[in-house]
Amino acid sequence: MINFHLLNQPKVTIAAANVRVPAMMIGGVRNFSKMTFEKKTTENQSKKDSSSGEADQGNKGEQLIVSYWGVKPMKITKDDGTEWKWSCFRPWETYKADLTIDLKKHHLPSTLSDKLAYWTVKSLRWPTDLFFQRRYGCRAMMLETVAAVPGMVGGMLVHCKSLRRFEQSGGWIKALLEEAENERMHLMTFMEVAKPNWYERALVIAVQGIFFNAYFLGYLISPKFAHRMVGYLEEEAIHSYTEFLKELDNGNIENVPAPAIAIDYWRLEANATLRDVVMVVRADEAHHRDVNHYASDIHYQGRELKEAPAPIGYH
């Protein structure tokens, strides 16, 4: 079922923030060596910070740069009048995940290309299981650093193809970049749950460097193979998050409160827990599975992505 999350968005108010123009810019004179930084604060926030000593996690370290160019940041408020605190995503980008999606669907590999894609993903699972074992928080964090790459690479290459050929993309640029952004938000969420240590960060750098270039080359050679492989990768992600849920239900992993970023991004209840987060992330992966297998099927039928409208907003 396609759930276009743009149809039911929360109401927000947007206003340009006041930006003071220093005297050094009056008269069109630009002295960049004297530009200053101004931290964005409100009276309520100042009181909160002074009383609790805790900074707003959404705008942690956010500073407004006073610039000659006059680019003014937006002040966004939610329905209840409170200020929207996230700069990495906006209220109109949030949605409620479709938890009714079929998690058991599987594409049976029949062609040589499908089998190669299937066993490539299976071979990657063995070292992952060996390294992370049952540390599913760290495993999810590592998984999302990889899962966010294909959408970006695919969207970039479809974008370049659209430019070269002077043609529309059928919405696939937006759909693929939307997938990449969604996977990145998964990472931002799990970073609040499992803090990466130095060697895990080093591993991310190495894996991302290898996987990005390998997938880039693979997509250039065969988009149908690339999308099929991502479809199987998402199937493995569904399995991993199902195991994560089992560990939570068995009490082997503490079911801590959901991070604030997850509550706002997926419009969860205020008392949502880590289990609720894993549920919505797993649903997201199932949707990415469908989109990538669908994209591969389009290529297998001798068509191009632009010939089939992209499932934009499919969550």
UniProtKB/TrEMBL annotation:
GO CC annotation, single: respiratory chain complex
Molecular function via GO: alternative oxidase activity; metal ion binding; superoxide-generating NADPH oxidase activity; ubiquinol:oxygen oxidoreductase activity
Subunit structure: Homodimer; disulfide-linked.
Keyword tags: Electron transport, Iron, Membrane, Metal-binding, Mitochondrion, Mitochondrion inner membrane, Oxidoreductase, Respiratory chain, Transit peptide, Transmembrane, Transmembrane helix, Transport
A Pfam family reported for this protein in Swiss-Prot or TrEMBL: AOX
Entry membrane topology: Multi-pass membrane protein
PANTHER family in the cross-refs: ALTERNATIVE OXIDASE, UBIQUINOL OXIDASE 1B, MITOCHONDRIAL-RELATED
Note describing how the cofactor binds: Binds 2 iron ions per subunit.
Needed co-factor(s): Fe cation
Record InterPro entries: AOX, AOX_sf
Subcellular compartments: Mitochondrion inner membrane
Reaction(s) catalysed (UniProt annotation): 2 a ubiquinol + O2 = 2 a ubiquinone + 2 H2O
Chain spans, region Disordered: 37-59
Name of the protein this chain belongs to: Ubiquinol oxidase
Annotated TM spans: 198-221
Family of this protein: Belongs to the alternative oxidase family.
Ranges of Basic and acidic residues composition bias in the record: 37-51
Organism: Arabis alpina (Alpine rock-cress)
